[in-house]
Design brief:
The chain is of the alpha+beta class and 85 residues long. It has one domain (6-76). The protein has three helices and two strands, in the order ααβαβ. It has helices spanning 6-9, 23-34, 57-62; strands at 48-51, 73-76. A two-stranded parallel sheet has the order 1-2. The longest helix is centred in the middle third of the chain and has 12 residues, at 23-34. It binds adenosine-5'-triphosphate and magnesium ion.
Length: 85
């Protein structure tokens, strides 16, 4: 994962693991390294779409300076009014 180029990761990436294997931690670290691409000051901010099944994405993104209110950030969670679905 440490040496996975972004151009490869954005093709197809799936993370599987048993409970507490470290899936969320891995996603968090990966997002940390990509966060600048989604910030408003990036030349052409890219779209970030997150399915937030456990209601933990918003605080995680917030720590990275990203928010569901940003026009290129989409949270998919029917139980969160900040979500798009
Ligand atoms: N590489 C690692 N080395 C040591 N501890 C780790 C590592 N990755 C994750 N952990 C720790 O393991 C615990 C579970 O991690 P995490 O929440 O990422 O797992 P998960 O697979 O998302 O779990 P769940 O299935 O419950 O969503 C956390 O306390 C985390 O800090
Ligand atoms: Mg998890």
């Amino acid at each position: 994962m440490r040496n996975l180029p972004v151009r490869e990761a954005v093709k197809h990436l799936a993370i599987f693991g048993t409970t507490s294997a470290g899936k969320t931690t891995l996603i968090q670290l990966y997002l940390q390294s990509l966060a600048r691409r989604f910030r408003p000051d990036w030349p052409r901010p890219e779209q970030l779409i997150i399915f937030d099944g456990k209601n933990d994405a918003v605080p995680m993104l917030s720590a990275l300076g990203l928010h569901p209110e940003d026009e290129n950030v989409f949270i998919l969670n029917p139980y969160d009014e900040r979500g798009v679905a």
